[in-house]
Every structure is written in C-alpha cells, then in structure tokens.
Recover the amino acids of this structure.
C-alpha cells in the first residue's frame, strides 16, 4: 500500500483559538479511514519499540490515539483528565499556560510499577506532557516515552520532556 | 476465551459529581486489557450489524470507544465536541441539563450523506445522544443507530432517541 503524506490531512486554522495562533486541525485525518489507519500503524510500530505495559492518554484528543493504540497493543488504557472529571480519589499537578496555570489529574490507583507510554495528538511546549509524566512517576510508574501525532518543532517541547524518548509522526 | 462480566469492571462512585448521584466509573474496565478488548469485540460486532459508514464519537469518553471502533471497522471518525473546541466552521445544538442547557458542536464539513453510528460511553437521559443525532441529520447524514458501553435503564434514555436502534453492552 502506498504511504500517504499524513501532513496533508492536517489543516491549518489561522487565529484559533486566539489571534496569531495557527491551529493544527486533525479532524480531516480522523475522517479519512486510510489516513487514520496509517497514523495508527505508524504509532503502533513506534510504541512497540518503547515496550510499554500501559498507555496513558491525555484528555481529550489524546484519547483518540491512545485508546486505539491500547487496543492494537493489547494493553490497558489510563486517562489523564482536566480537573473535576475523574470520579475517584485523584492526584493532580499543574502546568504553565500563557495566562495562569492548567491542572491535570489521574486516579491515585490508576498506575503502579508499570512502564507507561504517554500519548497525545500534539506536542507544543510540552507542558501537559511533562505534567503527565510527573503524575505517572508520583504514582510509581516509569515513563517509557512520549508519542504524538504532530510536533510543533519551533516550540521546542522536547526540551521539557527530560531527555526521555519522544516520537512524533508529523513535524511542522 | 471466557466471557468476562463487564459490569464487574465498572465501579460505583457515590455522590459524584453531586450528592445523590451514583457515578459509573469505567476506568477499571479501560485499565484491564482483557475487559477493554472484550468490550470492543462486542461493540464491533453490534456496530457491524448496523452497517455504518462513519463513526461519530461524543466528547470525551465517547472518543475512548468510538476511535478504536472506527479503527477496527476501517471507518473514519468524527468528533462531537463541547463549545469552542472545534477550530473550523461548526454547527451547534442544545440539550437540556438539570440546570440550564448544554451545547454540542460539529464541524459543518464533517459529514455528508453517510450512515453514521453515534458512540458514547453511557446512555443516561439521552440528551447528548439525541442532540448529536440532530446535528448529524442537519449535516445530511442518516443515523444508523446508537452504541453505548453502559445504559442506565431507569432514566429511560431510549425514549429520547426516536425509535432508532440502540445498543448497550451493560445495563444497570
């Protein structure tokens, strides 16, 4: 089967969510079965090389790739969520946003001494991914690496991820 | 392979998100590979019988089942989101909450004359699922049916779904 240029299924939306920001819209990729399959094929191959025992997905677009990846690899899936969404006892950590801080939460019984792969759709500054890694380690897990569909290289998010393995399918 | 009692992987959390509500926590099911696989096996079999051409998943727990289902069926995936999350031109509709209204949005170019299956984790009153069906139809699609992991039968959500096919794996 031919290889599709995955970047051509990602659409630029200027001035979203704020003036001056060019948003990478992945909905055309999700909508096209061949592109979605190829993205998941490539993510699965890269994930396997990192040897995770659990997939951790960041709300909410991280769910779109993390859940099928867990399914393909025969692993369990653990969600990382915004505050107030998880019903059980949770741990939380903060990350820096342009204005103020964001917060992420995980159930305190979600992990254990497992090797986890952290999955999201996009690596920008790395704030949410680094925050997720801290939460995973607090819960006793080892972070095998990070896997993204898209990386915005000019934001140098890898620098925030502590030298751990970082995989991204499409770089802008 | 033995059949697991999926209900035993769903945990009751009393008084979440408000006093008097018993929340059905699906994170233990997601976390256990055999339970997640079985849930997706059963959802895939039921989805096939409804003959969808696209999977529509409702933010954000609907993404956890809709995305792997699209992957397994070789179909595209379309997200339905809360207001302000979708970057492109969108259509919106409202549904009734206990206090005030909720809003859901879809990209106006997300569908077409396709048969869609609407997927979410849980059927309660049916408000969000019915709202999603109205959005899909406004965009020209035909709703093949609804698929849920869990149905809270005492809330009679099926009555809100206009006699279309409704599938749920676990009923409480």
């Amino acid at each position: 089967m031919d290889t599709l240029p995955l970047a051509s299924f990602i659409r630029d939306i200027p001035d979203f969510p704020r003036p001056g920001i060019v948003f990478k819209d992945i909905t055309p990729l999700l909508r096209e079965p061949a592109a979605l399959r190829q993205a998941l094929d490539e993510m699965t191959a890269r994930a396997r090389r990192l040897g995770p025992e659990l997939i951790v997905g960041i709300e909410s677009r991280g769910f779109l790739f993390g859940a099928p990846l867990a399914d393909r690899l025969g692993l369990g899936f653990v969600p990382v969520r915004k505050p107030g969404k998880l019903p059980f006892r949770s741990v939380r950590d903060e990350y820096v946003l342009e204005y103020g801080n964001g917060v992420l939460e995980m159930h305190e019984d979600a992990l254990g001494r497992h090797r986890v792969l952290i999955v999201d759709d996009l690596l920008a500054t790395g704030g949410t991914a680094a925050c997720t890694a801290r939460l995973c380690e607090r819960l006793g897990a080892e972070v095998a690496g990070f896997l993204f569909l898209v990386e915005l290289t000019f934001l140098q998010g890898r620098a925030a991820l502590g030298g751990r393995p970082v995989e991204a399918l499409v770089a802008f």
About this structure: The beta strands of chain A are 11-14, 22-25, 54-58, 76-80, 90-96, 101-107, 115-123, 142-151, 166-171. The interface with chain B takes residues 11, 13, 16-17, 23, 25, 27, 30-33, 36-37, 40, 54, 59-61, 63-65, 67-68, 70-72, 74-79, 84, 86-88, 107, 110 of chain A (CB under 8 Å). The radius of gyration of chain A is 16 Å. Helices of chain A lie at 27-31, 33-50, 61-73, 127-138.
